[in-house]
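Re: the 194-residue chain
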Amino acid sequence: MSERHLPDGNPHPADPAGTGSAQTEETVNILRERAIRLAEPLPSSWRQTRLADLLVFQLGGTRFGIETALVAEVVSHGAITPVPGTPPFLLGVGPYRGRIVAVIDLRAWLDVDGRPLPPDFRVVVVTVAGMTFGLAVDSVEGVVRDDAGQRFPVVSPASAEGTPFVREMTGNRVGVLDLDGLCRSGRFVVNDGV
């Protein structure tokens, strides 16, 4: 019995002649037409949606967001101990779940609104590139679901090295921070050898 027969010995429906060639001319034409249709670009209304959750917060009246996958927790600022000899954007260090973490003043880092943080500011604890640290923000709005496919690249504030820290803008005017870029910045890395 050839490979193209059913267990009962009858020819396979795709090979009625039982020749072992399952691709009849009709099958080839159907597959060719299907391939041509599938190769056509999808209409823009069929655009794939890439949903992502963003933690949205305020800095000097401007809305920013961080992808929630990077956020460990939002906490009250508690006791932050200043560290002498550090740049102005480093508020200090503080306790977080049995560890000591650096707390970055995002207003100073991004040069947003020269006023100091409000007394009731919050700290967004994030883990990025193997580092856990806090980001001091004015207030937290909450988590919003955003279509990442609808974001727009932006020209944003940059460090002296030219690393952008706001990589995209959502349709709701939320600047999505580039925390990986922030961590790669030469301003952010501590030199243990000093």
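The two ends are 80 Å apart (CA to CA).
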